[in-house]
Every structure is written in structure tokens, then in C-alpha cells.
Write a structure and sequence with these properties.
It is a single chain. Helix content is 8%, strand content 52%. The chain has 159 residues and is mainly beta. The strands form 3 sheets. The chain has a 5-stranded antiparallel β-sheet, with helices on one face. It has a 4-stranded antiparallel β-sheet with strand order 2-3-4-5, with no helix packed on it.
């Protein structure tokens, strides 16, 4: 054994998984599922009967929760699918910068400055108009699988 110290570089996070397994047959409409490594909200589920080649299959039609793209997947109903952990957090809007980033106030009084304005045009105009009118706005941020995006807006009255 040598006297040298060994240093190991850790590339893992704190062990909090981005997804959890769930049996395909138990995933329902309005639930969440990972298709092609993207977190999606299920809009349609159809299950085929067990055929001569084994398992009943679930056909999922889902919409990516961040970019709105429609994705489909077919999985045997007895197999496990990845289901993303989806969190929604409300923040108070403090400022909108020139380059499209927003400044948000967290519950503990710190600011969160790493989020862009949403790409959804109607939500974007609601945020910009409300902020321009000096309204007190609370935005809902949806986060899943390492991504975050503003998904809703609440007007809590004038400042």
C-alpha cells in the first residue's frame, strides 16, 4: 500500500432519481411517463388483449410537458415504464431581463435567475403584459428530469 491519498471524482448527484418504475398496465390518462427520454403527460392509453405471442400491450399517446411534442410508445402491460418525478413550485416574479431571463423570488427569500421566459406565446404575452402593468405576478414552474419551465401564471393583484 502506498502512502499517497486517493481522490475519487464523483459524477453522481445526491441519489435522488429523476424517474421511478411503474407497471405499464397501471399508468392512466393524465398520468406521466417517460418516452424517448422525455417527460410526457399521457393523453391516451389503449390496451390490446393478450395474443398468441404473450403479453397484453399498452399503447401510450403522450405530450412532452416542456415542448408540447406528441410522442407514442407501445409497452407490454406487465413491463415497467419509467415515470418522471414532476414538481410544481410557485415563485413571485421580480423582474424580466432584456435577454429573456426572469428573476424569481423563492420561499426562503433568495432569487432564482436561471429560468427563461416560456416559449408558449399566450403565456409569454400574459407575463409581459401583467409585468408591464405593474401587477404582482406568481408563476408556477414545472420541473422534471433536470429541466424547468414556467407553465402557469397567477395574478395576485397590483403591487
Amino acid at each position: 500500500m502506498s502512502d499517497e491519498e486517493q481522490h475519487f471524482e464523483s459524477k453522481a448527484d445526491a441519489g435522488a432519481s429523476k424517474t421511478y418504475p411503474q407497471q405499464a398496465g397501471t399508468i392512466r390518462k393524465n398520468g406521466y411517463i417517460v418516452i424517448k427520454n422525455r417527460p410526457c403527460k399521457v393523453v391516451e392509453v389503449s390496451t390490446s388483449k393478450t395474443g398468441k405471442h404473450g403479453h397484453a400491450k399498452c399503447h401510450f399517446v403522450a405530450i412532452d410537458i416542456f415542448n408540447g411534442k406528441k410522442l407514442e410508445d407501445i409497452v407490454p402491460s406487465s413491463h415497467n415504464c419509467d415515470v418522471p418525478h414532476v414538481n410544481r413550485t410557485d415563485y413571485q416574479l421580480i423582474d424580466i431581463s432584456e435577454d429573456g431571463f426572469v428573476s424569481l423570488l423563492t420561499e426562503n427569500g433568495n432569487t432564482k435567475d436561471d429560468l427563461r421566459l416560456p416559449t408558449d406565446d399566450s403565456l409569454l404575452s400574459q407575463i409581459k403584459d401583467g409585468f408591464g402593468e405593474g401587477k404582482d405576478l406568481v408563476v408556477t414552474v414545472m420541473s422534471s428530469m433536470g429541466e424547468e419551465q414556467i407553465c402557469a401564471l397567477k395574478d395576485v393583484g397590483p403591487k
